[in-house]
């Protein structure tokens, strides 16, 4: 199905909680602000809502929140601590105590590296270096795993007796994509390798000798299980994408690669089409099929609202202002649920603030983490 597209628009009106479509069975909780400072849990299967003061509120004392790629954790930079917590408020773990040295003076800039791994860089002395050099060091913290992986520095990445140039590191994994320069006798060429930071094994990946001013374009999937790449193309020519899977060692032709927000299972990307009829696009990275969906009662408008995936990657929570409410005060935006299997769209509620997350059922995540 690579390169194929399909338009889905089964009905012209929105479904309601009182008239649900067949096969509609979402699970989990949609978290939104409704009124006051507390967040509310919305049950997507029936529209019931309850406030929950245990849910982490990003803002105020919690001035910076970053969700993991699979939405199973929140990294929070608080006033006194940098910590992680489940979206339901359970299983909190302190990473850095900002009230004690050395983090009292400078806190490392943490970021997610895969689903359950945090990473940061620091400049310092390279361990076991005979010349006592300084360089950039990479640190990782795998949640629930002790001890942490050994720190790593690109300065020690040697490929074919030459220092490799780091291009990108595998999220949550040991691989790096590295580059070596060589001369073709006419111009510069490039060789690309996958270097294992744990075993120091090297595997050949690609070679470019005919594009002196251009290099390979490559980036990792947020969960780290795939590397997407394409070779240089002339200006104005659409690139042809491939993907490499480290687990199998296989390269696979993709053709198009449509950027968007990845689903929690890593299979789909969702994006706005900027069209006034088929508003939402979902690209399937396994089959290559690109599906577009209409939002009933939004005809004539472009969708520029939010996308929040359900935990099982089947549903999308959306928010939009509808034309029928323009002369009605106090309605606000509608929170909608799109089933990407059938194309049905349910009008879940109105007057909610921007969606924070669509999380799993409260409770099991924390229990699983401690099991």
Cross-sheet strand order for the largest sheet: 1-26-25-24-23
Radius of gyration: 24 Å
The largest β sheet comes out as:
5 strands, mixed
User: N-to-C terminal Cα separation, in Å?
Assistant: 41 Å
The overall pLDDT average reads: 89
Total strands? 31
Percent of residues in helices: under 10%
Total number of helices: 1
Uncertain segments are 366-371
Strand content: 35-45%
**Helix/sheet category:** mainly beta
General form: globular
Summarize the structure.
Helix content is 2%, strand content 40%. The protein is mainly beta and 371 residues long.
Summarize the SSE layout with pairings.
Blueprint: E1 5-8, E2 15-16, E3 29-33, E4 39-42, E5 49-52, E6 64-67, E7 74-77, E8 81-85, E9 93-97, E10 111-112, E11 117-125, E12 134-142, E13 158-159, E14 162-163, E15 165-169, E16 175-183, E17 188-196, E18 202-208, E19 217-220, E20 227-230, E21 241-245, E22 250-255, E23 261-262, E24 268-272, E25 280-284, E26 290-293, E27 308-309, E28 315-320, E29 334-339, E30 345-350, E31 357-359, H1 364-370
Parallel strand pairs: 1-26, 2-30
Antiparallel strand pairs: 3-4, 3-31, 4-5, 6-7, 7-8, 8-9, 10-11, 11-12, 13-14, 15-16, 16-17, 17-18, 19-20, 20-21, 21-22, 23-24, 24-25, 25-26, 27-28, 28-29, 29-30
Describe what this molecule looks like in 3D.
The chain contains one helix and 31 strands. It is an all-beta fold and 371 residues long. It has a five-stranded mixed beta sheet, with no helix packed on it. Residues 366-371 have low confidence and may be disordered.
